[in-house]
# Entry
Amino acid sequence: MNMGIEDLVEGGTYEVRLNARNPKGESIGRIDDVVIFVKNAKARIGKQHRIKITKLYRTFAYAELAEPIENSKFFIGNGSLII
# Structure
């Protein structure tokens, strides 16, 4: 079952893998067919994260990081390990 924008809820939390970054410094992920822009997550590419939807539009949504998923360690650009 693919989720569409009508299945998402503002304020709802979801798990998403962040796959890319845009020039504004936002990370980009997908929940099935819906593109999600995650603010302040530019160093977290390639990992699964729990996000909270802040604003829904007709074809995409904005979100923020809600909390890290257990055992979701990742490195940022300067080589520091974030847990």
